[in-house]
UniProtKB/TrEMBL annotation:
Active site per database record: 179
Occurrences of domain 6-phosphogluconate dehydrogenase NADP-binding (ranges): 11-170
Family: Belongs to the HIBADH-related family.
Naturally occurring in which organism (per UniProt): Umezawaea tangerina
Listed name of the protein: 3-hydroxyisobutyrate dehydrogenase
EC supergroup of this enzyme: oxidoreductase
Domain of life assignment: Bacteria
Stored InterPro entries: 3-OH-isobutyrate_DH-rel_CS (IPR002204), 6-PGluconate_DH-like_C_sf (IPR008927), 6PGD_dom2 (IPR013328), 6PGDH_NADP-bd (IPR006115), HIBADH (IPR011548), HIBADH-like_NADP-bd (IPR029154), HIBADH-related (IPR015815), NAD(P)-bd_dom_sf (IPR036291)
Annotated metabolic or biological route of this protein: Amino-acid degradation; L-valine degradation
GO MF: 3-hydroxyisobutyrate dehydrogenase activity; NAD binding; NADP binding
Residue stretches making up the 3-hydroxyisobutyrate dehydrogenase-like NAD-binding domain: 173-300
Reactions it catalyzes: 3-hydroxy-2-methylpropanoate + NAD(+) = 2-methyl-3-oxopropanoate + NADH + H(+)
Length: 307
C-alpha cells in the first residue's frame, strides 16, 4: 500500500457516506489513511469531518490527490454519475491511482466504469461487499473483487482495513457477478424462511421451537439464523425491533432486479428470483422499503379468512 499521506497512510477519497460508507470511512481514518470525503448530503459528511477527514466539493475534488478512490453508492446510476460525470472522480483522479467501487451494481456498469477509468490512466476494481452495517463497523466484510490481480495486490492492505475475507473472483465485473449470485441466494432463502414461519404459524407451531429445530436441521440458512421474521424468536433480530435496522428491503429488490437483468444478458430464466423480486417490490408501496428484508413476511398472501 502506498504511504503518501500526511498521516503516513495512503491518500483516500471516499464517496458515499451512508449506512455502509460512513463506518467504512471511519475505519480508514482510524487505520491512518489521509481521507477526503464527498456525499451529496452534506449532513452525511459531518461525523467524518469531526473525526479528521477533509470535506471535498465534488467527487473530482475528493480524488484530486488520491492514491485510492472508493465509491459506496446506492446504485449504478449514482456510481456512473460520481465517477464518469462532469464533476466525477475520474476527472480529478491522478493517473496511476486506483478506483474501487464497493457498491452493489450490475456487471455492465462495472465494466463501463473500468473502461472509462483506463482511458484516464486509472485502474479500477469492482469490490462489492457482504456483511451489512455491523460488518462495516467491525471491519469483517467479505469483499468480492473483480479486476487485475496485480491491482488487487496493491490495494489489499487498504481493503484489509474493511474486510476479513478478500476474494479475487476474476476479471472486471466478476466481483459484482458473485455478489449478485449471493443476493439471489439470500433473497430467495429469506422468502423460504418466511413461508416456513407462515405455515407453522397457521398450524399452531411454537415458533421459538421451530427456530430451534430448523437451525440445526436441513432448513438452516443465514436468514433463518440472523433474522427469523416474527418477534419473540430472536431478541437481537430485526423483527423484535420493528424490522430496523438491517438490510433494507428496497436494496434487496434492487439487487434481485440487477441479477435478473444479468440473467437476461446471459439468456437465462431465474423463476424463483423473479418471484422473490415481485414480493420485495410490494414492500415499498406498503411503506416498508426501508425495513429489513425479513419484513417480506408481511406481503406473503393471506389466508382466505384474511389472517
Ligand atoms: P445508503 O443509501 O445508506 O447510502 C448511500 C449514500 O450515498 C448516501 O449518503 C447518499 O447521500 C450518497 N449519495 C447518493 N448519490 C450520491 C452521489 N452521486 N455522489 C455522492 N454521494 C451520493 O446506502 P448503503 O446502505 O450505504 O448501501 C451502499 C451500497 O452498498 C449499495 O449499493 C448497497 O446495495 C450495498 N450494500 C449495502 C449493505 C447494507 O447492509 N446496507 C450491505 C452490503 C452492500
Amino acid at each position: 500500500m502506498d504511504t503518501t499521506g500526511a498521516g503516513g497512510g495512503p491518500r483516500v477519497a471516499f464517496i458515499g457516506l451512508g449506512t455502509m460508507g460512513r463506518p467504512m470511512a471511519r475505519r480508514l481514518l482510524a487505520g491512518g489513511c489521509d481521507l477526503a470525503v464527498f456525499d451529496t448530503a452534506p449532513a452525511a459528511m459531518r461525523p467524518l469531518l469531526d473525526a479528521g477527514a477533509r470535506a471535498a466539493a465534488s467527487p473530482a475534488d475528493a480524488a484530486r490527490r488520491a492514491d485510492f478512490v472508493i465509491t459506496m453508492l446506492p446504485d449504478g446510476r449514482r456510481v456512473l454519475e460520481a465517477t464518469t460525470g462532469p464533476t466525477g472522480a475520474l476527472s480529478g483522479a491522478p493517473p496511476g491511482s486506483v478506483l474501487i467501487d464497493m457498491s452493489t451494481v450490475d456487471p455492465a456498469t462495472s465494466r463501463a466504469v473500468a473502461f472509462e477509468a483506463e482511458r484516464e490512466g486509472v485502474r479500477m476494481l469492482d469490490a462489492p461487499v457482504s456483511g451489512s452495517s455491523a460488518g462495516a463497523v467491525d471491519g469483517s466484510l467479505t469483499i468480492m473483487v473483480g479486476g487485475s490481480a496485480e491491482v488487487l495486490d496493491r490495494s489489499r492492505r487498504l481493503l484489509s482495513l474493511l474486510g476479513g475475507k478478500i476474494v479475487h473472483c476474476g476479471a472486471t465485473g466478476m466481483g459484482t457477478t458473485v455478489k449478485l449470485a449471493n443476493q439471489v441466494m439470500a433473497g430467495i432463502s429469506m422468502v423460504a424462511v418466511a413461508e416456513g414461519f407462515r405455515l407453522s404459524q397457521a398450524l399452531g407451531v411454537d415458533l421459538r421451537l421451530l427456530h430451534e429445530v430448523t437451525t440445526s436441521s436441513s432448513g438452516d440458512s443465514w436468514p433463518l439464523r440472523t433474522r427469523p421474521p416474527v418477534p419473540g424468536v430472536l431478541a437481537a433480530g430485526p423483527a423484535d425491533h420493528d424490522f430496523e435496522p438491517g438490510f433494507r428491503s428496497d436494496l434487496m429488490r434492487k439487487d434481485l432486479e440487477l441479477a435478473l437483468s444479468a440473467a437476461v444478458d446471459a439468456g437465462l430464466d431465474l423463476p424463483l428470483t423473479s418471484a422473490a423480486r415481485h414480493l420485495y417490490a410490494r414492500l415499498g408501496p406498503a411503506g416498508l422499503g426501508h425495513k429489513d428484508f425479513s419484513a417480506v413476511i408481511s406481503v406473503l398472501p393471506r389466508r382466505i379468512d384474511g389472517t
